[in-house]
Specification:
globular, alpha/beta, 4 helices, two-stranded antiparallel sheet, Rossmann fold, 7 strands
């Protein structure tokens, strides 16, 4: 079901990545890095995470991501999916707690594949590791 979302050559933006090692945004970001993925942390409140540049938004990432993972409050996800559409990204994975009905509907209406009610690390990547 998640085959395209789990491709090793995907460029992945993690919106809500954090320099705080106790937060899920950091855990997901670092897990993907260790797994060999090309990952772009996105958080307007951090300049860098573990020495890697952190981007203010999806538009400022130098390479268009294939996938955006949201690890933010559901209200933020609603604005993120509009940014995803503007950037031409075609896949969004909403981590538990970041999904919103409005954001899911927006994705479906704008041709963006969306996964929700499922953890990227637990439900997706564990199948491949």
């Amino acid at each position: 079901m998640y085959k395209e979302f789990l491709r090793r050559d995907n460029r992945i933006a993690v919106v809500g990545a954090s320099s705080n090692h106790n937060k899920w945004g950091y855990r997901i970001y670092s897990h993907l890095l260790r797994g060999g993925f090309k990952v772009f942390p996105v958080n307007p409140n951090d300049a860098s995470i573990d020495g890697n540049p952190c981007f203010r938004d999806i538009i400022s990432i130098p390479e268009k991501p294939d996938l955006v993972i949201t690890v933010v409050k559901h209200e933020v996800t609603e604005s993120i999916v509009r940014e995803v559409h503007e950037a031409g990204v075609k896949m969004v994975w909403m981590q538990p707690g970041s999904e919103s009905r409005n954001a899911i509907i927006y994705c479906k209406e704008h041709g963006i594949e969306v996964v929700y009610n499922s953890c990227y690390v637990v439900d997706g990547l564990k199948e491949n590791w």
